[in-house]
Amino acid sequence: MVLLQRCIRCLAAIAIAFTMLHATPAPVATNGQKVAAKQNTPTDLQKLKQKGVLRVGLTKVDEPPFYMVDEEGKLIGLDPEMARDIANALNIKVEFVRTADTWEQVVQQLENDEIDLAITMLSRTVERSSRIMFSEPYVVMHQAILLNRLKLANKYLSLQKLFEQPDNILILQKDSSYEAFSRTIFPKATSISFGDWDNEMLPALIAGQGLGIFLDEVIIKRSLMLNPALNLKLTPVVIEGYLDYISVGMTWDKSGLKHVVDTYIKNTGQLTTTSDLFKKYEDYFIKKRKNLEGQGHD
Q1: Domains of the chain
Q2: 282: which of 80, 85, 156, 165 lies 20 to 30 Å off by Cα?
Q3: pTM for this entry
Q4: 26 half-sphere exposure, CB direction, 13 A CA radius
């Protein structure tokens, strides 16, 4: 009931914000003559209303609990929930575009006007912010390292010192924000990049091709939760003081839409913690883990 009331208040707040954007200023008298009222609605919102559809970009690969397909084939998670709420408040349909292999390709889709919003667990980086606009963050995560226990020879060095040693390879995800983040946190590290987490990055770490994977705490926590046996071989370390701000991306000409998105985030009290996210979609992870156990994953 509390969640339902919260959603109702959220949709009402967005509707009010959208109405205010449509408000027409009262005529003002100048030299005895009335000035014609002007339409105040931002151009980008006018175009959206005319199209009647909000195109939202996400990567092809599911990223639970942000977005994933359930057993019934429905796209669920925090990101599609947000997209549907925003589209409903604007009284238009939502279309999910899932043709991008990487987050970088989603950013390119924004630049090419193939989508209106990127709601896809997208990290804010300096490089990306020079190309697109970001909303206020709706989730703040910690940056983290997943270490190979068996390969970790010196447990007492700091992470930065560990990865200054040339034999301690840092594994990164190709075309992700963590390639950029690594240049700040681990400037002297020798790194190697892979594309896919399950089929490339994780097997490479277990095989000893690197000492650790540098990525966000959500992906690392999710993997250890779904496959508890990995805890015998791998250990996660949260990097204190280094955060990953997850925001909605859009192009510079979407100022009206940005206002609506920011209003949604503010009025829903988003800025969700990762613990809240996993708790909210706990049922999904329970079913997913049972399915993996049934398939004999270790």
Answers
A1: 2-20+42-140+246-294 (3.40.190.10), 142-244 (3.40.190.10)
A2: 85
A3: 0.84
A4: 2
Return the HEC string of 233-291.
CEEEEEEEEEEEEEEEEECCCCHHHHHHHHHHHHHCCCCECHHHHHHHCHHHHHHHHHH
C-beta of residue 142 within 8 angstroms of C-beta of residue 216: yes
Please state, as a whole number, how many other Cβ atoms lie within 10 Å of the Cβ of residue 265: 22
Q: What is the pLDDT of residues 148-169, one digit of tens each?
A: 998 887 777 889 999 999 999 9
At residue 274, the pLDDT reads 87
Residue 8 host element (H or E): helix 2-22
pLDDT-derived band of residue 298, with 50, 70 and 90 as boundaries? low
How remote is the C-alpha of 166 from its chain's centroid?
A: 32
CA distance 141 to 24: 41
Closest alpha carbon to 59 in 112, 103, 96, 122: 103
